[in-house]
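Tutorial, part two.
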Amino acid sequence: MKAACWQGTHDVRVETVPDPKILNPRDAIVKVTATTICGSDLHIYDGYIPTMQPGDIIGHEFMGEVVEVGSEVKRLKTGDRTVVSSAIGCGHCWYCKQQQWSLCDNSNPNGWMQEKVYGYGTGAIFGYSHAFGGYAGSFADYIRVPFADFTAIAVPKDIPDEKLLPVSDAFPTGYMGADLCNIQPGDVVAVWGCGPVGQFAMRSAYLLGAERVIGIDRFPERLQLARDFAKAEIVNYEEVDVLEALKEMTGGMGPDACIDAVGMEAHGTGPEGLYDKAKQAVRLETDRPHVLRQMMVACRKGGTLSIMGVYGGFVDKLPMGAAMNKALTFRTGQMFGPKYIPKLVEHVLNGDVDPSAVLTHRLPLAEIKQGFEMFKHKKDQCIKVMLQPD
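Running the prediction step on this input gives:
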């Protein structure tokens, strides 16, 4: 089969690789009908995710058709159409039973790689380095899905792929970001980053009862989508001081909750931005925490910070005094896919949300390199690229 393999920083190639096989009776083989480049994939593309090996198949946001199932798969059958969670959970450990699927104790055979940095190993993620399991990803014709009864969710056959594809990862990530905010009636929620996850976080904040939502970005097309799709008020951080703008928009209190939908490659301005970029380049700091700093200062006293942007290692110069003295609550995590995906499919079927609004470009898998470059550099007003295997 054909698959997109990581060969190094900014080097992704479509190659011929062996077809996946059933390795465990709880596996399924899925023919990928649609997949997409996620902002998290850019961290791999840019060389910031360790434990990648040349030849690794990347990609983790996808859907498709079940073409083979293992002998112990009970909930799926050949021919089923499915949306697959990017986070892999066994369904039986303590964490999975608590619906904390990305913390699974059993899905990641390489959890030991994380222990020195994180203290404990987390669950696995498709196509996201050997520290997260070393599973082959979705930029391929076919993919092996472990723990298929829990990781893959059957969906109706009469809904276009475009409407369901983001339900695999971007939509539940944004929804979880809003859910972690414990939104109360009348709340104001500010979201840093108006990419796909940020768009879904804003839309989800309204679904969960927020009164006002504010989107923060610098790209006009993303801010416009935040206004049109997410129904958010918008702030362009290159034109105004974000902290002053948020104070003015909230009567001096600050947002009740702040969501980070950016992560380790946050774009900073002025000396702070240059400082983080330089330290990250020489690996004195693995992640750029510009958004975290702003959120910790901007959030109202007693508010909540929800961090869904991906961070891999270490950051510095965080205003912990502000966080502690303002009694802020931090909530974060890789998304709990199987907890949210069925609910979000219902929202799609009911017409509450059309996730295809974030898909601005469609390319064959063979043109994935162009897709990465377009997505990374925001060419042609790109917000999200849908890829279809040949």
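Residues 337-349 form the longest helix (13 residues). In part three we will examine how such features are distributed along the chain.
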